[in-house]
Amino acid sequence: MSEPSKVGTFFRLYLVTSRPYYAFVTGFAGWAGIAASQAPLSWRMVLALLMLFTSWGINQIVNDFLGLEEDRINAPQRPMVSGALNIPAALGLSAVLMAIASIIAYQFSPSAVGVILIGCGLNVAYEYAKAIPVLATLVFGVMIALCYYFGLLFMSPLLSWAELASPQHLTLFVAIGLANSTMTYFTYFKDYEGDLAAGKHTLVIVLGAKRAGQVGWFMALLPFAAMLPLARTLSWSALSMFAVSFAVALYTALRYHYGPVGARTYFNLKWNFRACILFQASVIGIFQPALGAALGAIGFVAVSALFKVHTRHPSMEISARNPVPETSKVQP
Known about the structure:
mainly alpha
């Protein structure tokens, strides 16, 4: 294989490992913070969004590296697990990209760099938090919710601590965190056997797949319960968006309730991601109703398209079709 071909293959595998369909999770979480800043459209905003949408993929490389042990069971076809992706080079590229992002952020908002550093630390802590039930889901939720404050601080770097800790900002931060905690809770179903073999203690492992599927209904309600303090202040358009998001969240819980094991747990991810990004688009809609509605519709369709492309990649084909054997024991 020629050198240009090797380089091209490396970047393709890096992109596959970054899971492009997840970009909307960090992207929309940060966009909510940008919308809350009430800043007008500018190149500064475009730059912030570029950093937010790429942040998931850059950090996913680190997450996959730390989770190699369980992924050898859960997803042996992933480029990093199979050895197809050069691990040192991938980690090096992610480190360089994060350094560039931090330097750029510092030029606009030094405090935003602190958010980046905390987020990177939580990404590492997340893998080890899986040893403690509930903690991993909370760590993940806080990590993604920090994107809200990154977007807010990047556009409004002079906000005081009192303004950042206002009831509105804290409520939205908690709600976005719970939406992402719920999202990652549902992702644990597909990883049941690998996490169990690796000694992880996620909620799905502790509860057992069947009972965890029932608890999924409660998890789906959490982000909406967190929004109740702001309910009276929301417009009818914002409430309508949250209603649509709520319906998708309940449908996601239904799918995991009746399909807690087997290949369905992988393909249910599409609805899981949709529920999360629709919730975050609804938060954007609080400040910019038309934009929130448009982003919700675009994200809903784009997640499905990107997920389909991802599962068709040769390195993902087997794991996508059967990530967990259908014969897996469903714990009572």
